[in-house]
């Protein structure tokens, strides 16, 4: 059983399913073409019934079912199946809608010209081997002497036992050019051949997406080649667009494709289609897909590409018989095998022609001898009793060569030369030819014709010998024949190759729409269409933006497009990427979905930073991502390092200490500054350029600040930097402090700017560039300080004092948060006891860098602030939704409504300026602090 099955398998592989690399044909196709050639059904003859062809093939060469033979014949006559049709069919030979061909008794066929003059040419000149047919009653060719690489031009498909083949069709002109390039340079690389043959050329046209699949197929023999229909978007009438499909992918059933589109519309998988109709005719394909109003045709088209066979893939598997054995071939191997085959065909044809020329020359040499010795020959023949004796006597005598000797030497026939005595002995073939010589050939004119023909054949023999002796001559013939094929049968390319990949990014399927993304302090996120929030006049009540529970509140709101990418950085050093359209869709009052359910976060892992990015990734080139860790490390990477983030995340930062965590990640540019703040009141400011750009994502970075034992980083901020001298900053700080005292009824100098020698223009410029740093201690005390007070140092130092952490009674506290703020911002502070307060930033006094500050939240003795969130009004925060942000009172702590006086009731700190310009606290204004 095993032996029988293996025999069967090899029979299927070699004799039925796989094409030969030399002529690109399976046995059934080869037998059909040869049978039609033998029967005389040539391209310039009349059509003959297909049943006659099938009968000839089945009766002589292919002992299989007539339907299998007819199906193979039909495919060779379909212009949507073959890039270069081999059979000229008359009648119904099927359609790309899947309609079958008419019965063989109705259709007629004949060979195409390319079959007669390219595939079958020279088959009668001993160019290929012949083998016995199945019953040994006749002979059939084992391969056709193809003049072009038909395997590439028309492709092939078949399923054998344990293997299959699927070779795409190509453009004849491009393939011939590739063969010529290979003949000129056998060391040519596959990449160089790809420049000549850029990809398949399907008979149905269409578009190939990208070149990766093509390169894989040409380099390895296997590759998935994405292809899609050729479409246009037309305006068929006012305010109504339609998608017009003019070319469909190769081997796609058009009727089934339309049924699938209709199913998608019915099941509401694809919305926006108003009508679907097929207007195809004999002139070409035309499918009209009408789009509903208020729908974008491009989005609907991308959805159809995703869900229907308007876009599909051709799985190239270039398996063919090479030397009688199945072999997976790359592009160069196929071309090399064909060129080697053509060399063999031309060599065998030349040897055959040389033999025929020598045979004719041999006969002519005998005739020339007879004409030269005509009297003696006539006398011998008349004296002979019968033809046999006459033939033997002609062969037995030595005949004078006379004037024929130069002609005999010219043909250079081995073993048949003139002797030293100037005589020539006739062979049996020559003697027979002389005996059959007609009397008219004895005239002077005929004698000259014999001599002329002999000289012509001698020149042919010389040419044939030169071809056989010179490979370069042989290759010249090969080149000429290839060029002839290109000039006669090549047609322009039908399939367009478009740059880009097969997979759509999902935003191609999503309507482009502005979204409001809302994130709560407790880790809930959602998106709501911006159109949901109607515009209100100034002072409006607003509307709820998220249903919050307990002490949760909206911590961040940003408006972006559905296509905007957002990076999520976690405390574990991982980065996750998600498009906005993938975020859960919600109503204005819904809570959203927990981030832990959207991202593959581990236990204890939290999202520390969410970073909306520009949709156009080319705009990321000049931007960097600055990382900071709790142990004082910083690292700078190009933002483009995070363009490709898989669904399970990507390592963004590696920690050198086990207990370290990622504190923050922010975007920056080369001219920005970094501000690091620690839990024990230290801070350091240094230029971004002090941190080199790292090429890897798994490095630990460099030291940003040298921490004291037990200290840790709690925040990192990016500050804009404007070049001012130290003297200018000190002068401006004195001026600003004096102005604040004057505003509070103190003894400030109204003309302080003249004392500090700064012009009004310079003061205005410095005020415009001024940032304020908010620092909040764990005991609820905080302050705002000008960024000018944070002097610029080198990276890696111990830093400077940022906040006086000494509490009343000599106890010390820690820092809860440090970050830049605007006067219009608001804060939400949460304690570990569950208290929550929302207050405006402008209610917190501006004080010196190393001062204590004012009481922002009244915290119990054993309680401390654990979270401070900035709510901004610049589109990246959550301002504008009083109901959602305020929540309810928590444990008796009132939620402030933005009144600055309410914040000042908790205590304030006045500033004073010493002679050296150092800003200090005046505790007399707030004994409690």
Q: What does it look like?
A:
It is a single chain. With 929 residues, the protein is of the alpha+beta class. Among the domains are: 13-146, Topoisomerase II, domain 5 (Alpha-Beta Complex), CATH 3.90.199.10; 147-201 and 341-497, Topoisomerase, domain 3 (Orthogonal Bundle); 230-309, Gyrase A, domain 2 (2-Layer Sandwich); 771-790 and 798-929, no CATH class. Helix content is 30%, strand content 24%. It contains 23 helices and 45 strands. Strands 27, 28, 30, 33 and 34 form a five-stranded mixed β-sheet that branches. Helix 12 (331-372) packs across helix 16 and helix 13 (374-383) packs across helix 14. It is elongated and about 155 Å long. One of its GO terms (cellular component) is chromosome. It is an enzyme of class 5 (isomerase). A motif (GyrA-box) lies at residues 536-542. Belongs to the type II topoisomerase GyrA/ParC subunit family. It catalyses: ATP-dependent breakage, passage and rejoining of double-stranded DNA.
